[in-house]
Amino acid sequence: MCGIVGYIGKQQAGPVLLDGLKKLEYRGYDSAGIAVYDEFAKKTEIVKAKGRLSALVEKTDGGKSLKGTCGIGHTRWATHGEPSELNAHPHFSDDGKVVAVHNGIIENYAELKQKLLNKGYEFYSQTDTEIATKLICYYYEKYGNDPVTAMERFILRTRGSYAIAVMFYDFPREIYVARKDSPMIIGVSDGEAFLASDVPAILKYTRNVYYIGDREIARLTDGGVTFYNVDREVIQKELVEIKWDAEAAEKGGYEHFMMKEICEQPKVVKDTINCAVKDGKVDFSEIGVTDEQLKAFKQVYIIGCGSAYHVGMVALYVMEKLARVPTRVELASEFRYRSPLIDENTLVVVISQSGETADSLAALREAKKLGATTLAIVNVVGSSIARDADFVFYTKAGPEISVATTKAYSTQLIACYLLAIKMARVNGSIDETRENELIAELTTIPDKISELLKDEREIQQFANVVAAKSNVFFVGRGEDYAVCMEGSLKLKEISYIHSEAYAAGELKHGTISLIEEGTLVIGVLTQDELYEKTISNMVETKSRGALIMGVTVKGRENVESTADITVYVPKTDPLFTASLAVVPLQLLAYYVSAYKGYDVDKPRNLAKSVTVE
Ligand code: M6R
């Protein structure tokens, strides 16, 4: 979604702000703007542009036309009001003395706007951010021109989510920040301070960051930060070192981040296994949840959105097969509003790459309210979901930039397999020998993914055929059905081809009427006991004219009597085949999008992290 950056230091702020915004482009946006305070002219200059960041870069000569060493910047993803220069941030008070950028949604904006209209304020844009800016201005003037009090009043008066950065004209070398349910980090280095809504924006400059908590205020000065709680008391924060290296957030010679991230999967999968497997056993001591606690759970709920939900679908099969614990998987946006039957005997696992997805965060809080124990499987250290959960399993995917997730999905699968093995062991549904076997097999997955990545030419060629289709159906059973859901989402989100994933047994209950000459059906068949069944369903579509692609395990060459093109994945334990079968589907989606000339990493209308409901 929207991106925020801020800078105070010795460098010219404009280029630093644009550089940071560039690193946040992947989050999705439709306009951008920066504000820089010019110490000599004693004025704050604001420049905005609709469309790509390059328009703002051009307008400001790469940021150099704005003089000054303190500023804030924003990429906007429209929520209130159309994408336009007027609605773009920064917004400012009528006298220009308060300037702000904001991510999130102020839910009670209408009531606040009315209050300000009654006080004589005027509004020019359709945004809730202009209201937030003028509200802060109102409190600033009302409470003795004190920025901390103005921020405190803002926190107390607003409902919704926000990460907001504000410059006050009377405090020219300071930036004030507040947040609630929307990400924001603050970085410091020698004589400089940075703020950003996501790590990649500041990695080039510093790895030392503070996480500002919900309903807290930060005051940034040259190289220093002071934090306040909502009672305006100074609070102490721990400086955290970000381990991700700056290069991980660069393309490193690849044409797109998505391909780079697909290729990183062997490494990040291995890293994720290594962080929770010690001496050949699943070891959750770093996570902190004990065997006794795990043993006590009577049911497991797995919650996520989009691809994270699809990971949960795979995990549902694996968890019930291995650990024999009743497991449900649910979309966070549904779970949060339907009064689920959970209690203190329930483990709720929330899966999220960003750790900031609004629905997943709300679902986690709902689960806690109902008494469940929560375990977050999260990639971004210090994110809201990680901070709110009782326990955290950090995946080791590193920064994922492409909007379409690949490597984070793969590491989330690993975390779920390890959780299922651990629960199976503590429940006694598997013995030590089976645990050893499973762990030994799991450690072969990275090499098997590498093997698959070497053999992608056929998929690349087939992408031209797929690019011409307007409908694609993915079918499979069991774990394969879960993989189909992910393959279908990957294809639709970046290639804009309509696609559906069906449990193969459901075809006859309606969908088969859509099959006509040339319709592409992609069958995933990695589960031994379900292979014949799915083949029968594929034959049914073939006899109605479908073009068939099969994804199956090496040794199943007889699939070729049905499929027009087949991709083979290496053999592994059937519980883990999702980790392999998904790779050709990721590659296919990538090549179709690239063939069509689309913006692979930044598909239309999408954002990397969905921090609003
Ligand atoms: O950051 P999260 O894992 O919570 O994000 C969840 C979904 O928004 C995300 O997986 C989305 O579906 C991806 N674009 C899929 O590629």
Element layout with pairings:
Layout: E1 3-8, H1 13-24, E2 31-38, E3 43-50, H2 53-59, E4 70-76, E5 91-92, E6 98-106, H3 109-118, H4 128-142, H5 147-157, E7 160-168, E8 175-180, E9 185-189, E10 192-196, E11 208-211, E12 216-221, E13 224-228, E14 234-235, E15 240-241, H6 257-263, H7 265-276, E16 277-278, E17 281-282, H8 291-296, E18 299-304, H9 306-323, E19 327-331, H10 332-335, E20 346-352, H11 358-369, E21 373-378, H12 384-388, E22 391-394, H13 407-427, H14 432-442, H15 445-454, H16 457-467, E23 471-476, H17 479-495, E24 498-503, E25 520-525, H18 531-542, E26 547-553, E27 565-569, H19 578-595
Parallel strand pairs: 18-19, 18-20, 20-21, 21-22, 23-24, 23-25, 25-26, 26-27
Antiparallel strand pairs: 1-4, 1-10, 2-3, 2-4, 5-6, 6-7, 7-8, 8-12, 9-10, 9-11, 11-15, 12-13, 13-14, 16-17
Helix pairs in contact: 3-4, 4-5, 7-13, 7-15, 9-13, 9-17, 13-14, 15-19, 16-19, 17-19
This protein binds 5-amino-5-deoxy-1-O-phosphono-D-mannitol (M6R).
Any descriptors?
Rossmann fold, globular, binds 5-amino-5-deoxy-1-O-phosphono-D-mannitol, 19 helices, Glutamine Phosphoribosylpyrophosphate, subunit 1, domain 1, single chain, 8-stranded antiparallel beta sheet, 613 residues, 3 domains, alpha/beta
